[in-house]
Structures are given as C-alpha cells and as structure tokens.
C-alpha cells in the first residue's frame, strides 16, 4: 500500500499539473473560437481520439502482465510494439473511412475533413501505450510523470500561439497535434534510456506461442479500451450528430470539467494494476481499500462541482457556456461512480477476467448509446449526461458483483489446494 500510494501520488501530481494547464488552453480555445467554432474543434478531436481508442491495443497492460516474468520481458515488449504497428495500419484505414463518412452524419464542414484526417493519423502515430507499460512495469512513475508533463506544456504554448497567429480551428488542432507528437517522443526517449529496448524481438507470435491465452487477453483489453473511449468521445460525436456543433462543443466542455474524475479513475487504475499483478494474494483487499478511499474523494469532488461549477464555467469558458452547468454536475456524479469502480475493474483484469470486465461495461455503454436520441429529445444536454450516468452506475454495479464472485471463488478454492498433513 505504501508503494501504491506513492505511485498514485506521482500520477496525481502529473494530473494536477495537467489540470491547471488544461484550464488555460480550454479557456483560450472556447473564448477564441466561440460555441460553434469550439464545437467543430471538439468534433475533430473526438474523431482522432475515437480512432486511436478503437485501434489502440492496451499494450501497457500486457507489458506488465508478461513482462513481470524476467525471461519474457523482451518478448513482451516486442509483442507490444508489433501490436502498436498493427494499430497504426488498421487505425489509418478506419480513420479514412470514418472521416469521409462524416458528410452523411456529422455537422463538420467539408473544408475541415482533410484537417480531421491528418489529426487522426498524427494521433495514431503518437500511441505511447508500450513505453508507458515499460515505465510502470519498473515502477518508474516519476519518469512517467515527467514525460506526461510535456503534453500540457506544449498544448498550452501552442494554444497561445494559435490565439496570436492562427485564431481558428486549424490553429488549435495544430497545437493539439504537436502536443501528441511531443509527449509520445518523450515517453519513448525516457523508456529507452531507462532500459534498452531490443527491437529485434518484435513479433506477433512469440508471446502467444508460450501463452495460449495471450490473444484472448489482447482482444478483451482492446475492446474494453474501445468502450472506455465510446463512453466519452463517441458520445461527443453522437451528441454533435443529433444536436449540431454547438451541442458538441457544450458537451465537451461539460465533460472535460465534470468528468475530470474519470481521468482520476484512470490514474488510479493505472497505478493499482501493476500492484494487483504482483500481489495476487492481497489483490481483493487492496482493491477494496482503494474503492473506499475513492468513495470519499468522489463525494468531495461532486460537492465542489455543485457549489463552484457555475462560477468555474463562466470564468473559464465564458458566459455562453453557462447553459451546460447541470450537464457538468451530472457528469461529475458519473465520474465519482467511475472513480469507485476503477480499482474493481483493474482487479478483474489482473485476475485474468478481462473478458468479464469487457462484457460488464459493454452492455451499459451500448444501452446508453441506444437511448441517447430519446434522452436528448427529452432534456437536451442534461439528457445526454444522464445516459452516461446510468451507464457508469450499471457498469460499476456489475464490477462489484463480479468481484464478489471472484472473491468467493478464491475463498472456496484456496483451502482445497492446501496440502493436508499426513496422518
């Protein structure tokens, strides 16, 4: 627990630094572009993150899972890099089809289609899951935090330059693209300096040869990651498709401010997963304690959103974004629920139940997407926020039930495996 809390401290420190600068570039973008212009910007960013999220295999998880075994460390890294290459190829095909289909369903002007495709390709080339896994495998969270800090610095600086020299959607997208390239380069450089990467072991076949369950784990974690993106980025695209670019811009602001807790949940998940892999005997107890701490933090954060959220929206984004206050509060509650469920989901994945975790999140996410048109017709952005709240609540309840079953299995099996003394 001491090491876990120290690692979470590093990650939260990086998140805190990122959060402060994110307020700077969010304020610059919203006030410069306005509600509709920011809506176009939000749609392009959501397209890039959707493509990357769907195509990206969560390679950091199996770098930790199989790299923890010393004899497999090089092969695990080679397998992860090979999957990253496959992500880039498949993602480029997906990006091309998705961007050029937007004319039929998304309110994105045709003159921005080329910019959107370029941003998608840059995002794919900037995938950094493998070096992230290498640093977490060796518990180098301080180095990972230093690499993460590159992104908000470059993004904030780019936003300032965009305001001064190119105050339009293109200028801000270029700033975001530059930050993606910079942080990916920082991760690879730091990971390679910490320990040499043997590129001769790049292969899609070596790890699966020794671990027959590898591909099942790969596809389960990939689909879970895609669903995590679907809960946020795809919802922004759907909100834009149903309500227009202004709705998309407003929903992104509400999501970025209200669902900051989801990012915190992802931080907790990334810190706790290596510990659960290395300490299977105490995994349930660690996850339970983290969920209790998360509950307290979530309640505090929701209270802050209720009391100061309206003032924060006006101060950061401007008066025209005041209308998204209640959507932001609802998303903050959803974020608090996700925060509690983060350690439970990590526990399932670390125990080899990635498929269970995926199915538990898949059903609520697909239900939320199906209900979104009705919810928005009922209550606009607040209705959209309620679909995410319901999805998060159902998923975390499912994680809890699955963890109870997992604990029961362990309690039942472990005594039977204990050798009985001979009489």
UniProtKB/TrEMBL annotation:
Give me the Gene Ontology terms describing cellular component: plasma membrane
InterPro entries under this entry? Poly_Biosynth_Transport (IPR050833), Polysacc_synth (IPR002797)
Mode of membrane association: Multi-pass membrane protein
The regions listed as transmembrane in this protein's record are 7-28, 40-64, 76-100, 172-190, 293-317, 323-342, 354-372, 384-407
Q: Name one Pfam family in it.
A: Polysacc_synt
Q: Give the highest taxon in the source lineage.
A: Bacteria
Question: Can you say where in the cell this protein is located?
Answer: Cell membrane
The alphabetized UniProt keywords are: Cell membrane, Membrane, Transmembrane, Transmembrane helix
Report the protein name in the record: Oligosaccharide flippase family protein
